[in-house]
Design a protein that fits this description.
Blueprint: H1 2-10, H2 18-92, H3 98-117, E1 120-122, E2 135-141, E3 148-154, E4 157-159, E5 162-165, E6 167-172
Parallel strand pairs: 2-6
Antiparallel strand pairs: 1-4, 3-6, 4-5
Helix pairs in contact: 2-3
Length: about 170
């Protein structure tokens, strides 16, 4: 303890170095500024990571929706020949038994209703102006005026506004 007392007695107010004191205050201030800067950097990093994660979640949701839509489009596209065959079957059932015709018509109506709920719509054809975006002209006959669809060879369809299959048509004009 004598050593401690000697040191304590040896220090007086006159022994304090004002420059050393000022340097310690500056270094304390710099330490505080460093901590504030580091905190701000960490906050900015956390905000960037949070924004990246939100963007990731949105991208995953968008990708999932697109994948579901592609799957629906693929399935509906594979069912279009079945729908075409139903159309042909209905045309050939004029002489069939009334109960058989009614049964086929009910199944056809249910089938079409399911496809419409999925977003399928038939492209209008006969009597409409020819539109190369939705019609595929396979026959042409001379006529006056603008090209007009006069006969449908195969129905065309849109799925949620996108042309899934253009209509094969005969055009006049």
């Amino acid at each position: 303890m004598a050593d401690f007392e000697d040191v304590e007695e040896g220090l007086g107010v006159d022994d304090v170095d004002p420059e050393a004191l000022a340097d310690s205050e500056v270094s304390g201030s710099t330490a505080d500024e460093d901590l504030v800067r580091e905190r701000d950097e960490m906050r900015a990093l956390a905000q960037r990571i949070q924004a990246d994660f939100e963007n990731y979640k949105k991208r995953v949701q968008r990708d999932q929706a697109e994948t579901a839509e592609r799957g629906t489009a693929l399935l509906v596209e594979q069912l279009l020949p079945v729908l075409d065959n139903f159309d042909l079957a209905l045309l050939s059932l004029e002489d069939a038994d009334e109960l058989v015709r009614k049964g086929v018509e009910l199944v056809y109506a249910d089938f079409v209703a399911v496809l419409e709920r999925a977003g399928l719509e038939r492209i209008p054809t006969d009597g409409t102006p020819f539109d190369p975006e939705v019609h595929e002209a396979v026959l042409h006959e001379p006529g006056s005026g603008e090209p007009t669809v006069v006969e449908t060879m195969r129905s065309g369809y849109r799925l949620k506004g996108r042309v899934l299959r253009p209509a094969m048509v005969k055009v006049s004009g």
